What we know:
- This protein is of the alpha+beta class.
- The protein contains eleven helices and nine strands.
- It folds into two domains: 6-103, Phosphorylase Kinase, domain 1 (2-Layer Sandwich); 113-337, Aminoglycoside 3'-phosphotransferase, Chain: A, domain 2.
- The protein is globular.
Amino acid sequence: MQGIDIAPVTEWMVANVAGAVAPFTFEVIAGGRSNLTFKVTAAGGQRFVLRRPPLARVLATAHDMAREHRIISAVGRTSVPVPPALGLCTDETVNGVPFYVMGYVDGVVLDSPERGAELPMPLRRVAGEHLFDVLADLHAVDIDAVGLGDLAKREGYVERQVKRWSTQWEQSKTRELPAVDEVARRLREAMPMQQGVSIAHGDFRFGNCLTDAATGRITAVLDWELCTLGDPLADLGYLGVYWFHGDVNSMRENDPTPAGGFPTFPELVDRYARRTGRDVSGIGYYVAFGCWRLAVISEGVYARYLHGAMGDPGDFYFEAYKIGAEVLSERALDAMTKLP
């Protein structure tokens, strides 16, 4: 099993994870270009999930297993649904890299219009509403009470992000996209005051959650590798990037909402506002920021592909990242243009 040294990992799990009875079978759930995730089935049928960094050589800070484990351990003490954190291994003699084990949670990942269409129509509204309720609950977590008060700087989140991703754009761009530079300028000029500080997931969307296909409710929020402290409205605006707004430019292949039947984004933003009491009148700024940030990320992936840093792409269509950077930067510019 590539990425798992079965004998020492088995020994470690038996010694450190309650209820883990050998032998185990390992099955890749997701992996390759980000953190690798494995489903682990024990002898008695118990299921676990093991997460480790990618196989390619990466910066340790970009795939910090101890940090992820710390976050889900802390959030797991709240009402926000996350897989239970069961064990962290920082001894690299076991598997070559740190890894952690969490509980297996049932649910489907709604990561395409086709997956969205499989959800019964009455449950699509339930799913949309609960997704935004879970985000509101995450943003209500007392960061000091759960031990995450020192996870990152508390203030100036968007300012730091705009600076960071502007630098990233200059370092990774493969061509000139005037919309990227123009949006960055407008983001700096129109930067809003941060409304408090919260846990900011950084990639909160249906595709990073498990949904109960029988009830429509979110059973677990996944993929906490981008999590930090920051402006809660950044997560809210980012959901607007992955929400169908009725036009072809807002369609994304990993977004289930084009299937229809989901509440509109404005409806759900209002729902979030009622639940949190936050002023969401400037949400268009954060949608623009989310589109712009994702455009820069897409360009970075495309640049790494062109430079041969992604390994053998197989039949993976990397041109989609190039096109995505173009479409997303134009969406960002359009959103900034419509700001009051």
